[in-house]
Amino acid sequence: MITLKGEHIYLRALEPEDLEFIYQVENDESIWEISCTQTPYSRFLIKQYLENAHKDIFEVKQLRLVISNYKDEPLGLIDLFDFDFKNRRAGLGILVKNFEDRFKGYGSEALDLLIKYSFSHLALHQLHCCISEDNEASLKLFLSKGFIEVGLKKDWNLVNGEYKNEYLFQLINH
């Protein structure tokens, strides 16, 4: 896979050394709402996942990349999922793990790199994402990249006993 380099960060493939980082991300209950996670993940399951992470996006229908700074520290993850080659589309998700690393442009730069990669190398026609109505940072980020709100899913996610709406966004490569 080609290296996706930006000014402050780069995107790279998952490595076995990412086990602890992924374990921390997947088991951080404060972000389960964003990732639609319901239960914790064991190190054993994450190790198995990492052993298969080398598989091609055309085979497994997803691609997870690490957002890394130039000190080789992992900052977050960015994913393509529900990869549909026939219709040339994929879902997109992004997470910068630590709050102190957010709002510094890392997510914006990572999103730029993955959008460019998706349209130029994977020949996708469109990307889509779903964002909770109260995730103001993600709403602002995706709108700034040209994503268009195309739908509202009412009472979509039950969070702490209350239903939340979720927006559907698309970015079409013209």
UniProtKB/TrEMBL annotation:
Q: Which PROSITE patterns match?
A: GNAT (PS51186)
For this protein, the record's PANTHER family field holds: GNAT-FAMILY ACETYLTRANSFERASE (PTHR43415:SF3), SPERMIDINE N(1)-ACETYLTRANSFERASE (PTHR43415)
Q: What is this protein called?
A: GNAT family N-acetyltransferase
Segments forming domain N-acetyltransferase = 9-170
Q: Tell me the InterPro entries matching this sequence.
A: Acyl_CoA_acyltransferase, GNAT_dom
Keywords, ordered alphabetically: Transferase
Q: Name one Pfam family in it.
A: Acetyltransf_3
Superkingdom of origin organism? Bacteria
User: What GO terms are given for molecular function?
Assistant: acyltransferase activity, transferring groups other than amino-acyl groups
